[in-house]
Structures are given as C-alpha cells and as structure tokens.
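Blinded run. Sample ID left blank on purpose so nobody reads anything into the name before looking at the predicted structure. Input follows.
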Amino acid sequence: MASTYPPRTGTGPGTGTSPGVATVPGPSTGTGPGTGTGPGTGPAIASPPGPVPSKVAGPLGELPAVHAAVICVALPGLAVSPEHGQLTGRGLEGFYQHGRRLLSRCQLRVADREPIAVQGRAISADRARFLAVVRTAADTGPDPEITVERLRRADGTERITLRSSSARPLRLPVEVALGTDLADLGAVAAGRPGPELPASVYDSGMRWTSDAARSTVSAQPPPTDALASAGVLRWTVELPPGGSYTIQLTIRTDRPVRPPGRIASPLPSAQDTRAEGDDPRVGALLHRSVDDLGALLIRDPARPADLYAAAGVPWRCGSAPAEALWAARMALPLSTRLAAATLRALARTQLTGPGPELGRIPGPFRDAGPYLPPGCTGVEATLAFPVVLAEARRWGLPEPEVTELLPAAERCLHWLAAAVGDDGYLADTGPGSGGFVRAETQAHLHRAALLGAELLRECGRPGADAWLERAGVLRGRFRAEFWVDDLGGGRPAAARAADGRPVPLLGAGAAHLLDTGLLGGGRPAPGLLDKVQTEQLARLLGSPAMDSGWGLRGLAVKEPGYNPFGHRAGAVRVHESAVAVAGLAAAGFEKEAGALLRGVLDAAEMFGHRLPEMYSGEQRTGDSVPVPHPAACRPAAVAAAAGIHLLATLAGIRPDALAGSVALAPVRSAPLGAIRLAGLSVAGEPFTVRISRLGVGMVEQAAAWLQLGG
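Blinded prediction complete.
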C-alpha cells in the first residue's frame, strides 16, 4: 500500500513537518485569514520572504521545541520563558507584543549570584510564577534565607520580589541584565533573530530602537545605577529581618498592548463557568479551557469590536478561518457571541467578485499526512460557515444577527453548489490535489447541506429542497463507494483517488463521519454511514489501533506511514478526539466514547489541564505519561474549545431556542460519575445542568420560558 498512493505534494503553508503552520517559518501562498497574520490587528508575525535556510533552521527546517516552555498569552501580548525563569535570549525566549520581540534577555543576579530555580509554572493563561532561592555568605546554615519570586505577565510586566527569612538585616546588590533584538516572531522561529541592539538609558530604565520598532523597559523603584553598554540596571536593596523588596519592570513599545477602547469579551470569564462532580479534574479542565480560549482572542482589524480566536501560540497567533470556526462551534454552550463575531469577521473576507470563486472563504493549505495532498483550510471554513450559523441559531443567536449573516451563508452554499461535481462529491482543490476526494470533506459537505437546507427553509429563502436532495444523493453514493470491505468487517476509505480507487487508510479524520450536527428540536442530523457501517466505525475507533489510551490517534498503528509524532499520521489531536467522543456518544456507543474521554482527561491532568493541540500517539502503559509534541501550539484554540466540548457532551444539551425548548440526552453510562456544569448559556440566559451517577440529567437553571424536554 505504501507504494500505491503518492506522498503529499503541492505547495503552500503547512506542507512540511509542522502542524499546519501557516505563518512560521515560510511565507503563506494563500489569501485572507490565516495567511501570515500575527497577534493583534495586522500582519505582525509574517515571516520574511524567501525560503528558510536549512543551516539556520535545522536540517529539516524544524521549529524550535517549545514543549517545556512556560507560555503566557493574552494576545497581542505573549511571553515565552524557560522553566527556570531566566530569559537568556535563546530560542523563542522573550516578551512579545504584536508579533515583535520587545525583550529577549532578562537575567537576574542577587548578591552577585544567579538565584537557584526551584519552580516555574503558569498560574493562568496570561501569568506565570517563578520561584528561586539565593544562598549568601551571611546564611547561618545550609538553608537559604532569601527567596525570589518573579511574576511574569503576557502584557509586558514582571514583578520581582525578594523576601528574607534572616534574623539580621541584609544589604544586597541586585542587578537585571536586559537586551533585545526587536526581531519579528517569524524570524525568531525560523532561526534568524537579529543581533542584540545597543541600549540607551531612558527615564528609569532602558530603550532600544531599530528601523522597525522601539522598546522601552522602565523600572520601579528607579535603579540606583544603569549601565547602557551592558544593558544592566542595578539596585542596592536593604532587607530588614523578615522583610521584602519588590521591583517592577514594564516592557512597552509605541503600540499599546490593547488598542484604545474597552471591548467586552464574547466569552464568559473562567471564574463565571464552573464544573464540579465526582471527578475533581473536570473543574480544572473547564476553567483552564475557558481561560486559554479567552486569552487567544484577537480583534478583527476591519471591525475591532469583533473578537475571534487565533489558532494558537507561539506559531499561529493570527487568524486561521477553519480553526476559528471550529473553536466558536465547540464553545456554543458558553455563548453564541463568539460564533457571531467569528462569522462576521470571516464574512468580510469572503470572495464576492464574479466567477466560480464567489462565496468561498479564502485560507491557506495545510499538510494532510503522508498519503494525501495538502487540504485547503478555506474550503473547510466555507463548509463550516452555514453549519456554525445554523447551530448558533439553535443555541439562541438573536434573529437580527442571523439575518445579517444569512447572505454570507447563502454565498457559501452558492460556491458549494458550483464546486460539487456531477457525482455529488467535493474534490480537493489547489496545487498537487490530484483530484482526491477525501471522506472528511464529504462529511463536512453533508453536514453543511442538511443544516444549510434547514436554515434556508426556516428563514424563507429558496434552495432548501435542492440541498436536501444533494445530501440524499451524497449519502447513497458515499455508503456504496467509500466503504472498503475486508475480513475485519470493513472500513471507510480515507479518500478516493481521481480514478475512483479507494485509499483504505484508517485515521482520526473518520471521526467526522459521526459528527452530524443538530437540526430543529435538537435532533441529530442523519449520518453519512448506515447503521451497520456506523457500528463498525465505532468498533474501529475504540480499538487499540486507534485509541492510544490518551486519545484518538491520527492514523492507526498498523497503517503504513504511522508515526506517533506525525501530526496527521499518528499523533493524538485533541480536536479530533473530542469530535469522536461526541459522535460516538450521540450514536449510542458510550463504551468507546467513555474510554476516549477518560484518556483525554487523564492526558489533560498530566499537561496541567492546558491541552496542547496534539501530543504523541504512543501507547499508554501502566507507568507511562503522555509524551508532548515538541512543535505543538499550547495553548491552541481548538484544543481549549475541545475541553469545553468534551464536558458538554456528557450533558448532551440539545437546544432549540427558536422553538423555546431544550432537551437533554446525557451519556447514560456517566463515565466520570456525577457532574454539574454551571455558567453555560441557552437562548441568551444562564443555564446550569446536573448529570447524576445514573446518567440522569436535570436542568437546575434556565430561562423561565424554555420548555424542558428529556
């Protein structure tokens, strides 16, 4: 089989070994969102033109490893630190704003010594705490008497606090060595940082200036001495017995961290959402997921009031249309406002000129594994647009906003109708596509057809019957032509080649065949597979070949090309695991859904409940832990939203705000025991639900006018 299907070909971002990196290290060939935009409101982390020299970026042009980094994010601010907390300027270390490294070096010395690091960790999405101790000649024994706490924030502030446990007053010299190259994040990631710039003394700190940017570090209290040639600030600190002394550094550029004007977040705060139950980890997962997703929100430059999710840090701090829509869709139990803002932002990028591209949302290409050509994220976003609008309407998106967005959804459906071939399939487009028709794309198309048809019918727009007919034709052909029979009961093909040959690879993309979407009354839409095929797919997804024990592998273990670190060839991608859990639970395969859910929750605990976008698919054993992927974004929007989606799946909330009703279809096996979710929203009102150990759901709080169903 390995020689039957050609390896991935084509050009465009994400065609190398990195996980769909659209902006780093190479330039994007797409247009629109996700093609080289950085934190904030502009193309801030677009890499310099030209290929990345292998002698700089490594033999394969790999990205620097960040799996052990402590990352604080509140876009457009970002801080990347090693676990010991000393910023040395190596790799990606530093404070960034709007995609520019404002400070790369921040090295602290106390009493002419480097503190001994004892702990470093993130305490929220935008803050990290580093703790160290200092041994001095005045210590009375082996125990250090000086502790140093550094609180670092993504907004560009650091608070250094020295605390004494000595019984005597101490007089200590303290110095902070600073430096920066003011390099673009894309250049730093590609291994091309600039030389460290000369500093000048400015006010109560230091300043660096280049042709592209300017950075200042101010200190309070002001230093007693400043040496510009070395970038050093010095203090003489008097510590009384049991006393403390605090120095605050503030890193700034000419651009504000947050543009003027306060904008309400489209998501509730992590403090306003709560999960509790027999498994105490559910609360930490929900809190961290909401916190991380909120920290990744960026403003649409065309309309700053619209906030949507960037793909992830540190590699993809800009807009990625498909992932922004996936994140908004999975966050619908919290609020419809993120979905509305995301849809509005992408509607403004939609191609509206005459011709066959009318209605398509542009986006870059990303790698699809060793046997398929790169897939277009713009096509994926175009398919997702009417789905997200239809489901947001069920959750309570106000009708005026639906009316505003409906023309864009119709344009998406117009493009789909023109792009679908005579056989009812949507083939890959773009360089190196080779006419492949992938199963995952047909699942997205089928869902868009069904939910789009209902959206058109309920809004009094033409075309609903035609889309229902297309969906029916697609179901019939898919069940006959995409199913590969074998001695094990068969499997869905991952794709069909241009000549009709199936590509019988089993991968996590098959989970999308179970994701049908919600119709009126909270009814699941019909699936692409029939009952027998669905049962077989559920068995395959729950088998050891696919379930690593930590989540769903991207490619089954025995498939040619399997690589536990392959981002589309064996690694666990959290988003696809969440899709599989929800699809399996909705189809009634709770045993398989529960096993995957528990595996991802166990992995989340090992990652401090901040789920990376992916991690190794190595098999779980009795004494193993999940292995991080060195190039994974963490936090990532779809991974953070997947944490929300996993917990909401347990409750099985099926809203229909249009009909004034909400029903529950909880996972009856209650794989995590009793659970209570609060701070959700249905029809714009607070919603709280409790699931008992017996899998019985009960609504504790909802809008008074909502009719509750079972």
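Unblinding after everyone has recorded impressions. DSSP finds 13 helices and 35 strands in the chain.
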